[in-house]
Specification:
Keywords: ATP-binding, Ligase, NAD, Nucleotide-binding
CATH architecture of the largest domain: 4-Layer Sandwich
Family: In the C-terminal section; belongs to the NAD synthetase family.
Low-confidence stretches: none
CATH class of the largest domain: Alpha Beta
Helix content: 40-55%
Largest sheet: 14 strands, mixed
Structural class: alpha/beta
Mean pLDDT: 95
Shape: globular
Pfam family, one: NAD_synthase
GO molecular function, one term: ATP binding
Strand content: 15-25%
Pathway: Cofactor biosynthesis; NAD(+) biosynthesis; NAD(+) from deamido-NAD(+) (L-Gln route): step 1/1
């Protein structure tokens, strides 16, 4: 009587449309699973083509190449004697579905289409796919000839069914279906399914991992069963970082945990489990058994294969473990660092250029790159040949071995302090000291000559010379003179990114890193096409509050003492003239609001879906101890006025690592107009009426 099963799940760093690389990683995961005795292997959602193909899903090429990869998998000896569960798009009766293809020994057992599609936030699955709305219904799918030639099958089952092996029953869920209120595992469990599988394309958000873990564990806590989850990991070509966390749970308890952040392209998790634990757990839940007696049964695909062996009484099984969650500071240190590594190696560039101002934001970005260097050196020490190979390509040295993070940072990070007459010596010193401590190649330059040349051209044409407000100029003149400095820094950043290595006689170019945080973007407190304009931005989805905590984490964990003075200094753009040699301009005074207030506005606007009036109603209670209703009204109006005036800047925002659910990223996540009636006359009148009533 077979009762012990060995199952494998994985986290793969797949890349959209990289069919060759994706196939290699799938094969590697199957090899590892088989070597550890697994008889079932689960992979991430849409792993064959990569999850982030977006509008490429419309192309017939994507379907064709996915089937070509599937044929390679089917015909390979590597996939023999193990049930393989892979993800790919499939066109059935001229409708495109997000599917799992489950096969064994050159035969496709079942094609299971996704039932609940993810269509909120960063996800747009309904744009490309149609959900399978025929519950417990199976149709014939006519295989393309390229697959028929391998399997000898003309048609295979397509639809909402489960697999019945000789010893147990397995049912599939795909990503969003776990998060849905009517998850399929509920009724599948009542119908006797003992093993639930979930193939995910779930991305990292700060403080989100525990939600996913809780959902997986709760899926089997009430109903019993084994739940295995696979997930994509890494940057597959856009703003998201898929954070692995493959896991296996039994009867509400985790028995195997995968890493959330790592540079390993393939991570396989294997667990040996006792089916009798599921059966005995379910036996005493009378409410479950009463519901099970009335459940509408699922179609079962019979599989002449067992996941267990006959003589398995002495086989040891996995015991429950305690899940270890990262702190938010650890998540910031690791997630964006892994995302940067994927972007750097896959873009085939030679490193990064970072305009380092000596402030918190650019310093936090430098620390993330330094953390990336730590991760690379750690991976090489642990024998990761792929990371070593990528590092050698980046530094253009076939014998190079990254051993020390500071030394590796010298190769791949160039920092640049761009001083003007409005810059203080303090920020210059802070930038220089931090660059020394992380090991970056540091450049000091002065932009005054370029600023004077640009303003000189304007004066030559118009006969007028703009002045800063401290010298009697208007607010328009003051802002224009600040913007000239900021934009010249962007031009110089790209010039040095393209030619610094050329000047040193080395090949390649550098990726320019942006340093605007999520709160500044929300408020629009940045110059359009300044140093916030870059190739990528690792902190664009992170709040100022979290960045400050991350800086403290770096002081303690990386011993970067230069960060202490950066932490204690008030944030400033240093674009207006100094007063007695000291900075007079500060960010929060310029913005008319604090960074802490900005985070609250952002969460209410996006997560709580609050317009001006609803935000006011919520804040008069939240802030009743510190503000009068009239003061709250003034703050809310000021925020929405500034937000709407500056919303156009979000259309050109540098692609940023997505880390917060109140991100104002206009590309995909936060879809809004960028030309507003900035008076908000009706909305503000409602607020005023309520203020007067109060």
């Amino acid at each position: 009587m077979g009762r012990v099963v060995t199952l494998a799940t994985c986290a793969l760093n797949q890349w959209a449309l990289d069919f060759e690389g994706n196939l290699e990683r799938i094969f590697k995961s199957i090899d590892i699973a088989k070597s550890k005795g697994a008889r079932y292997r689960l992979g991430p959602e849409l792993e064959i083509c990569g999850y982030g193909c977006s509008d490429h899903y419309y192309e017939s090429d994507t379907l064709l190449h996915s089937f070509q990869v599937l044929a390679k998998l089917l015909e390979s000896p590597a996939t023999q004697d193990i049930i393989c569960d892979v993800g790919m798009p499939i066109l059935h009766r001229n409708v495109r579905y997000n599917c799992r293809v489950i096969f064994l020994n050159k035969k496709i057992l079942l094609i299971r289409p996704k039932i609940s599609l993810a269509n909120a936030g960063n996800y747009r699955e309904l744009r490309w796919f149609t959900p399978w709305n025929k519950a417990r219904h199976v149709e014939e799918y006519f295989l393309p000839r390229i697959i028929q030639e391998v399997t000898g099958q003309e048609t295979v089952p397509f639809g909402d069914a489960v697999l019945a092996t000789k010893d147990t029953c397995l049912g599939s869920e795909i990503c969003e279906e776990l998060w849905a209120p009517n998850s399929p595992h509920i009724e599948m469990g009542l119908d006797g399914v003992e093993i639930f599988t979930n193939s995910s394309g779930s991305h990292h958000v700060l403080r989100k991992a525990h939600t996913r873990v809780d959902l997986v564990n709760s899926a089997t806590a009430k109903n019993g069963g084994i739940y295995i989850l696979a997930n994509q990991k890494g940057c597959d070509g856009d703003r998201l970082y898929y954070d692995g966390c493959a896991m296996i749970s039994v009867n509400g308890e985790t028995v195997a945990q995968g890493s959330q952040f790592s540079l390993d392209d393939v991570e396989v998790l294997v667990a040996t489990l006792d089916l009798e634990d599921v059966r005995s757990y379910r036996a005493e839940i009378s409410s479950r058994n009463l519901a099970a007696s009335k459940v509408n049964p699922y179609p079962r695909v019979k599989v002449n294969f067992a996941l267990s062996c006959l003589d398995d009484v002495a086989v040891p099984t996995c015991m429950p473990i305690q899940w270890r969650h990262h702190s938010p500071e650890e998540e910031i240190s690791l997630g964006p660092a892994c995302w940067l590594w994927d972007y750097l190696r896959r873009s085939k560039q030679a490193g990064f250029l970072l305009p380092l101002s000596g402030g918190i934001d650019s310093s936090a970005t430098a620390c993330i790159v330094y953390s990336m260097c730590h991760q690379v050196c750690l991976a090489v020490r642990n024998g990761n040949a792929d990371v070593l190979s990528d590092a050698r390509k980046i530094v253009n040295d076939e014998t190079y071995v990254p051993e020390d993070p500071r030394e590796f940072c010298k190769h791949i990070l160039t920092t640049c302090y761009m001083a003007s007459e409005n810059s203080s010596q303090d920020t210059c010193n802070r930038a220089k000291l931090l660059a020394e401590q992380i090991g970056s190649y540091h450049i000091n330059l002065n932009i005054d000559a370029a600023v004077k040349a640009i303003v000189g051209i304007f004066s030559l044409v118009t006969g007028r010379t703009p002045r800063f407000s401290v010298y009697g100029g208007s607010s328009r003149e003051n802002l224009a003179l600040q913007n000239v400095q900021a934009r010249i820094r962007m031009v110089l950043a790209y010039l040095f990114a393209q030619l610094t290595l050329w000047a040193c006689g080395m090949p390649g170019g550098l990726l320019v890193l942006g340093t605007a945080n999520v709160d500044e973007s929300l408020r629009g407190y940045l110059t359009k096409y300044d140093c916030s304009s870059a190739d990528i931005n690792p902190i664009g989805g992170i709040s100022k509050t979290d960045l400050k905590n991350f800086i403290q984490y770096c002081i303690e964990n990386f011993q970067l003492t230069a960060l202490r003075s950066i932490m204690s200094a008030p944030p400033t753009a240093e674009l207006e003239p100094l007063v007695a040699g000291q900075v007079a301009q500060t960010d929060e005074a310029d913005m008319g609001m604090t960074y802490a207030e900005l985070s609250i506005y952002g969460k209410l606007r996006k997560i709580a879906k609050a317009g001006p009036y609803s935000m006011f109603c919520k804040l008069i209670n939240m802030w009743k101890e510190i503000c009068t209703p009239r003061e709250v009204a003034s703050k809310v109006k000021h925020f929405f006025r500034m937000y709407s005036i500056n919303r156009h800047k979000m259309t050109t925002l540098t692609p940023s690592y997505h880390a917060e659910n109140y991100s104002p990223d206009d590309n995909r996540f936060d879809l809004r107009p960028f030309l507003y009636n900035t008076t908000w006359s009706w909305q503000f009148r409602c607020i005023d009426k309520q203020v007067n009533a109060l």
